[in-house]
Amino acid sequence: xxxxxxxxxxxxxxxxxxxxxxxxxxxxxxxxxxxxxxxxxxxxxxxxxxxxxxxxxxxxxxxxxxxxxxxxxxxxxxxxxxxxxxxxxxxxxxxxxxxxxxxxxxxxxxxxxxxxxxxxxxxxxxxxxxxxxxxxxxxxxxxxxxxxxxxxxxxxxxxxxxxxxxxxxxxxxxxxxxxxxxxxxxxxxxxxxxxxxxxxxxxxxxxxxxxxxxxxxxxxxxxxxxxxxxxxxxxxxxxxxxxxxxxxxxxxxxxxxxxxxxxxxxxxxxxxxxxxxxxxxxxxxxxxxxxxxxxxxxxxxxxxxxxxxxxxxxxxxxxxxxxxxxxxxxxxxxxxxxxxxxxxxxxxxxxxxxxxxxxxxxxxxxxxxxxxxxxxxxxxxxxxxxxxxxxxxxxxxxxxxxxxxxxx
Length: 408
Prior knowledge:
Layout: H1 3-18, E1 24-28, H2 31-44, E2 49-52, H3 57-69, H4 74-86, H5 90-98, H6 102-110, H7 119-132, H8 139-147, H9 152-163, E3 171-174, H10 181-194, E4 200-204, H11 206-215, H12 220-227, E5 229-231, H13 237-246, H14 253-262, H15 266-280, H16 294-304, E6 314-323, E7 326-334, E8 339-344, H17 352-367, E9 371-376, H18 377-382, H19 384-402
Parallel strand pairs: 1-4, 1-5, 2-3, 3-4, 8-9
Antiparallel strand pairs: 6-7, 7-8
Helix pairs in contact: 1-2, 3-8, 3-9, 4-5, 4-7, 6-7, 7-9, 15-16
Protein name: DUF559 domain-containing protein
Domain DUF559: 330-395
InterPro entries: DUF559, Restrct_endonuc-II-like
């Protein structure tokens, strides 16, 4: 995947949005690569990114609002909004609001020089009322309270865009199931029509794109995705085989097939070649600036390119407990799921003492509530399918245990 032309296309789309032209970017290609490209563009544009895997209205809005809340505390933005409306100094007003009760806020709101029932006013009042009783606003509570009335989507979008500056409006990407494609497009069209400057996009496979255009050739939403088409192409299996053979390496066929099927970014393909070379001729210096080994770098890159795991793991993360005389550190950590991946290279996991050290670390992980998956570096190359499937199963298991069926 060559990121430069994709980023350029997305920047053109954002230029259209800046001119108030409703635009839905359609990232057509392997879904994981579409997701990867959208996150990369959002980083270039220096804005937060919200990803949703469903077309269900409340879930999408919660993801979008939650991403906005992560950029700055809602209370800060609510006070800034109130200062602009009342034409008062924000710092002085913040100190005054901090001492207010909910009754005081109600009195202040009745005196506002604007409609107190406008979405921005409702949102600011809700946020500051929560603060007055010592609670932080939660995205789910915020969305459900505002979206419970008629035109809920419009009110939530207008509330966030009233409180937050445009550069903090999250870039929203939907990665829906094929049977949710039509409602997903309609939802994105509604957001883009409500506030054209909000960046919204859809990631879908080429076959889905073609089938949708054939089934709904004259639909308005079809025109949206045709106008917003951005082709996302990964490194093919043949191209990866050529790179491996060019490096004097015999391609591991199963791994190459899996990578091509999932979607392979150019930089991840490069990391895979390096990891394969390191397996064939390991040295103690197979390290990169951000990873302990090229195998970790490759595995992290591919997990970043898969919809189920994109943005989930972080490399070399310090943990809250000690291992020996220093803080424990995980090779790859999914903090929200307390899931750890350890990649054991040949040079550091061969002796009996090293084996004992790893087992003690595994016990510490379990003791502190972590699930740990431990793989040999060579298996990350030669048995990649099993490695990736195991990680996906563990992710699904941890997510299910965090949100059991029937839980409140």
